Amino acid sequence: MISESIIEGVQVRLRPLEERDLPTCVVWMADREVTRWLSAIGEPPTLAEEQEWYDRRRSDPDSVMWAIETAEGRLIGNVELRLTPTAHRAEMGIVVGDKAEWSKGYGTSTVRMVLRYAFKELELNRVELTTDEENHRAIRCYEKCGFAREGLLRQHRLVDGHFGNTLVMAVLRDEWRGR
Amino acid sequence: MDVRDVLRRPNAGASFLGTTPLGGEIAHLRAIQEADLPLLVRWMNDPDVRHWLHHSERPDATADTVRVRFGLEQQVLPNLVWMIETLERHPVGHVGLLQVDPHSKGAELAISIGETDCWSNGFGTDAIRAVLRHAFEDLGLRRINLLTDADNARGIRCYEKCGFVREGVMRERRLRYGKPLDMVVMGILKHEWEPR
Lengths: 179, 196
Known about the structure:
B: alpha+beta; eight-stranded mixed beta sheet; 8 strands
């Protein structure tokens, strides 16, 4: 589902992702420097394909998704929790699609806000994610937020014709609470 | 044959179709059929089997949940699922290649021997070897991974015998009877695999 809740932070604001955001998402997904780090498959999506993706997410009760906005109200990315309710677990996916806004701390603020929501509101026990082992900027952000490295899937992803490793990371509720 | 050709067949994504029969030394693998669902439901709800299933916390399995689990409903990436039978064609379990990704040429292995009196008889190892051969030689896949409970010593021993390598421990990844349980992630690459 597209989250109905708005989460206000100092640096960023998480709000429901809306259909009018989709053209911006299409621009991000056509940017190779952005998708380089995603486990994106094949050709960049068209607006119609992005609409299908949005509709799937909207009707999926185990997906919670927000748009990420700067304090000035500019859309810069989106973030999702894919829930496995019976295990009290979620997988996080985040993209800051606007390259001009990279390395400004927006991702870190967003991850912190989503973790708080996951552990306090959704009462999850574990939030996990996977990322490209070479995505050093993202890994630093996740570690700052409390994620620990748990494993390395060897030659798990295909990037520009070569196979790269996928890092598995997670943070548990008790670890997060102790921070 | 390339995995893309398999997925291009009519009804690709439905594991009832597009699944080639495979022969092992002591096991025969054939495509799952609608008629197998009651047996799969019985196995999945057997407490001794369910103990090791990743979804043991969910409500009891039904024909519908099994159908969804094996990807007979629409899915982004397809699943291939076989019944494991003795050479006399008596079904003892099932094995699947799930989320077959034609782009990265990877898939996830899932296996369960539902007839508990057939545990430790080598059916799992034989079935996995047959599926790995099919995945690497016929489908052109490059990597297979799996997740298993960290305390599943029998399973891990079998996976290591088949060539899987431990790649990490996912802490408290699932619940068993309400208690958090670590899971081991394992993987095997085509160049590590030795056909037998």
